[in-house]
Amino acid sequence: MCSVLADIVKIKITALEKEHDEILKKIQELEVVQIESEKDGGEEIRSHIVSGLDYNIAELRFALDFIALYKPPQKGIKKFLESGIFISRKDAIKTAESFDYQTVVKESKDLEEQINKRVNLIDKNNSEINILRPWHSLNIIPGKELPAGYKISFILLSEKSVDEFSDNISRDLPFSAFEKTNIENQELYSYVIHKEEDEDKLKALFETMQVREMELPKLDMGVSEYVENLNNKIKESSTELNDLKKEAGKLSRHERELKIVHDFLSWQKMRAENEQKEGKTNSTFTIYGWIDKENIDELNVSLAQITTLYHIEEIGANDEEVPPVKFKNTWSKPFESVTSLYGMPQPSEPDPTPFLAPFFTLFFGLAITDAGYGIVLALISYLAVKIFKIPKEDRGLFGVVFWGGIASVVLGAVFGGWFGVELSKMPGFLRGPLESMQILNPLENPIAILYLSLVLGIIQVLFGLGINTWWQIKKGKIKSALLGSGLWLIGLISLLVFAASSGGLLPVALAVPFKYLTLLIAVGIVVSKWMAEKNKLLGLPIGVLGLYDVVGYFSDVLSYSRLLALGLTTSIIGMVVNIVAGLAMEMPFVGWLAGLLVLIGGHVFNIGINALGAFIHSGRLQYIEFFPKFMEGGGRAFQPMKMESKYIQFNEK
């Protein structure tokens, strides 16, 4: 079991300026060097280059987003696979350097402008139609000149007030004409032709009777004819809009090349950003960075293919520099994703990944305890990687779920969990084999599962203390190991043996010697803390109070009881889903369909919610109860300059 982090060392690469671009490209391609910042004299120029690349990348993103809006829809599995581009590095670079992406970007911008123009015109015409629609029966042309001294007011008033308003007009404004046009929603659309000298009286009447005056556009034709013209314009614009959208959709033939160029420019940007960290003279450049010691030979061989005039020197980090951290796991590599969620260990700490992997897998299985669900989880995670061709660096979570699913299959079979179905109700040909695999029924004997959870908690807590002791001894801190975690490890084991023998679980003869051993260890803990304190007067009470840590350890162990609750929850919800589905199937005619929907929906929900809970709580036990026993965390991840891609996946082995 490998628990040691990669040996990250600091190096200095010096070469001729004329070889700079090729060397930087090669370092990026190798993905083994994390470049560190050094002062340089060309930062402003190179910052300008970064800004230019940012602009070009933004242009490409615009074009890709625009094309995505109008490209023909993909169906079936093709829809999920369309964004993946599998290509060699050589072909990707060749495509990016030869493709005229700026022409496509310009076409996208032009089409967007034309599309927006048509959309705005349609919206404008529709808005005008909505204003004029209630006036379709108007028998005059808005804006047409009236006889000298006369004006027209278009108004909107309540239908209930029409007669009163008409009477007022006839009585107070005898030289005015009130015409009704249309009634909608109990409101009358109408107009009044009046003398200019009567305008103040009319305004006063409007205010008194709460009449709203409307503003209509000046037209050179009747409203109905004008609206018809607007509708024709909308149809014409809609046809043009559809044609433009089809043209935009045709640009999707360039989508693959645009994505390749996008990633190509992203690589250039990363090189330009790292170039700002270099040291330079007129004829040479210097790169400072971190590298896994195992990769130095590979770097030497690769740079030698470019030039012989270079030098790689391993240099010591100064006191203020903390090397980045890189994992070097094999079988437990998927579980690095679990460790990373907590944070990276310090370079001086062990890698917790291989230690947590078996515990996390076991706890995940205990939280599910259903073999059927485990098969589904393992199958989904396996197929997802194969079908969607997920890159190796992104498979961590899928690997964790896969192994968690396998653990769920094994533990589910042991506990008799198969999609929440009681084994007694299984078909005869399945009942026998499944019952032969079952050892324990959690619903009938939950206390046994509780004891199992607590025992696993005890094992992991003690294991964490053991790791701490072993690691400190490995680092030469023997005294610190034996007087710290070593004492607690022996003391807790002694206390457990004393308790078990006193309770009859172990031979009673062990009780007395282990009682005295526990007391002796307790004295040792007090003395060690007392000796560690500079103020000896305060050291003794601090040492005595240190014994209270035993409560913390047992509190940690009790946290593992959550595994019982999670496992029972999965089983009970699964059984409830089956019961409800059975009741639904008794419905006439559509019962089979309703029952099927309940079964599928209920079990999918149960798998999803409990898989999430299993992951979260299994992780919590590692982060809160296990990791603090031997690591503080807070390290920074090793991040080499690489050809990081959003769309491309290299198909080289």
UniProtKB/TrEMBL annotation:
Pfam families attached to this UniProt entry: V_ATPase_I (PF01496)
Keyword Membrane annotated: yes
Instruction: Indicate the transmembrane segments per the record.
Output: 355-385, 397-421, 447-468, 480-499, 505-527, 563-584, 590-616
Extract the GO molecular function terms from the UniProt entry.
ATPase binding; proton-transporting ATPase activity, rotational mechanism
User: Keyword set for this entry?
Assistant: Coiled coil, Ion transport, Membrane, Transmembrane, Transmembrane helix, Transport
Give the membrane topology: Multi-pass membrane protein
| Coiled-coil zones | 227-254
Family per record:
Belongs to the V-ATPase 116 kDa subunit family.
**A single GO cellular-component term on record:** proton-transporting V-type ATPase, V0 domain
Subcellular location per UniProt equals: Membrane
Descriptive protein name: Uncharacterized protein
Instruction: Give the UniProt record's GO annotations in the biological process aspect.
Output: vacuolar acidification
Q: Which domain of life is it from?
A: Bacteria
Q: Which residues form the signal peptide?
A: none
